[in-house]
Design brief:
This protein is an alpha+beta fold and 281 residues long. It has eight helices and 14 strands.
């Protein structure tokens, strides 16, 4: 969610509960996030949320440039005051990080052994001078990326894609109606689309290529992995992920107010769904 609207966004996402942040932490974020934007010269800063570890909590922020679809900068803090930039990891490291089980420790220097690696790959990595360990920092950025790809969402029409391919906030977006806001088809994954090419010409007939360039939630696998709930008498619509419990998205219909935030242990919950839903024919 946008750092500038953090207090109100947390209230809307948590139903008035502050979304798991103490008043002290909210005050610290209110002071430090604007400094991140200034010091790193970001166009915008989003507060992503928290990953709770055994011995500490990671507070995560994202820095965005003019092109909102460009890779984002990710930063973490252990106290909401001092921030460290997370370095993107190689694809192979990210894949290994996604295989790790169990909770985070809350210690950026903690190291994990590779979860699964063949003898041939192990020999090749050792010859290249690569240790068969993953730092918790690397696991953290890989997990943030995994969660964003799976459940990082925006309302339909909130962003536009230019003929040159860059993506920008839609200044004409005035929010979804309450009726539309209660439909999964009104929300898009804010990541590279993978299902658009499978749409029929009939499905594309009413599309606007400048706004309908992302995958919608209506055909997510597994089915039933989202809940949609109007709250506060319909003043806000809240979506929650059952695949990644702790991810909450909110939108105030007929306004530009929306955002998502994550508070959890960063553990994927496939056990919430029967096998036939996870692997449909």
């Amino acid at each position: 969610m946008e750092a500038e609207g953090l207090p109100g966004g947390l209230e809307l996402a948590a139903g008035g509960g502050g979304a798991g942040l103490s008043p002290e932490k909210r005050a610290a974020l209110g002071a430090s996030l604007p400094l991140l934007k200034r010091d790193y010269r970001f166009e915008a800063v989003w507060f992503w949320g928290c990953v709770h570890g055994v011995r500490g909590t990671y507070y995560i922020a994202q820095g965005l440039g003019a092109d909102r679809a460009a890779p984002r900068s990710r930063l973490y803090s252990l106290d909401c005051v001092e921030w460290s930039l997370l370095t993107p990891v190689a694809k192979e490291v990210g894949e290994q990080a996604e295989k790790l089980k169990g909770r985070f420790q809350g210690d950026p220097s903690f190291q994990y052994e590779y979860a699964e690696v063949s003898a041939e790959d192990a020999e090749r990595l050792l010859e290249d001078g690569t240790e068969l360990v993953i730092k918790e920092e690397d696991r953290l950025i890989a997990t943030i990326d995994q969660i964003d790809r799976a459940v990082g969402i925006v309302p339909r029409g909130a962003f536009v894609k230019t003929p040159l391919g860059s993506v920008h906030e839609n200044r004409n977006f005035e929010g979804l109606s309450l009726t539309e806001a209660k439909k999964l088809s009104s929300y898009f994954h804010f990541t590279e689309p993978s299902n658009l090419k499978n749409k029929t010409l009939l499905e594309k007939a009413n599309w606007d290529p400048s706004t309908d360039f992302l995958d919608s939630l209506e055909h997510d696998i597994p089915p039933g992995s989202w809940t949609v709930q109007p709250e506060k008498g319909g003043a806000v619509v809240v979506l929650r992920s059952l695949l990644w419990p702790g991810l909450t998205f909110y939108h105030v219909p007929m306004t530009k107010q929306y955002g998502y935030v994550y508070f959890g242990t960063a553990c994927l919950q496939l056990t919430n769904f029967p096998v036939w839903q996870l692997y449909p024919k």
